[in-house]
Design a protein that fits this description.
alpha+beta; Ubiquitin-like (UB roll); five-stranded mixed β-sheet; elongated
Length: 187
């Protein structure tokens, strides 16, 4: 069993056969200790989804990117590898990394992040407008990495307000008891 010392903590980690194979076949060089040890997090890289195929090897035709998620609410930093054809949230969960989410379909803002560096492709992100996307907001549940990526989680209410606040800027909507009575009568 190969042991490698970690540059972040003073621990020795075993270099698994799947990690050795991935590091030897991947064209992008990654520090093997950063692939095994997470700075400021308790999450540990398991067998990555999509990194090794069903027959046990990585397809070199699918690029793999390092994704760093700074979780503001929990004060954690998660680093993990994600193939370009895999959703970021799904891959994180397969590696026992807990990130905020709700719908998993790109329709809400629970998993919203702000891109600090890198590029994310999110054709199915209905929960945020084109305007917010252009300002660097993204949804992890339907996001694919297009490069190495660093993102920061956002407060769901803050993103929701950015998305829909202009519609409610005139104050709260008043209750219309007559309309409610009519609607209830239809049932």
């Amino acid at each position: 069993m190969d042991l490698i010392s970690c540059s972040f903590c003073s621990t020795l980690h075993s270099k698994s056969a799947s990690l050795r194979q991935f590091l030897s076949t991947n064209r992008t060089s990654y520090n093997s200790t950063s692939a095994k040890c997470r700075l400021k997090t308790t999450s540990e890289l398991q067998t990555p989804v999509g990194v090794t195929g069903r027959d046990g090897y990585h397809s070199p035709s699918i690029p793999i990117h390092k994704v760093t998620v700074r979780d503001r609410q929990r004060g954690l930093v998660h680093e993990f590898l994600v193939p370009e054809d895999q959703y970021i949230l799904h891959t994180a969960e397969s590696q026992n990394i807990s990130l905020p989410f709700a719908c998993r379909h790109g329709c809400c803002t629970s998993c919203a992040v702000r891109v600090k560096s890198g590029h994310i492709r999110q054709p199915e992100a209905l929960g945020i407008s084109a305007e917010l996307k252009s300002k660097g907001y993204a949804l992890l549940c339907v996001g694919f990495p297009s490069s190495d990526l660093e993102v920061e989680t956002q407060d769901e209410d803050e993103v929701y307000w950015l998305q829909f606040g202009r519609y409610f800027a005139r104050g709260p909507i008043e209750r219309d008891d007559y309309a409610l009575e009519l609607a209830m009568g239809d049932e």
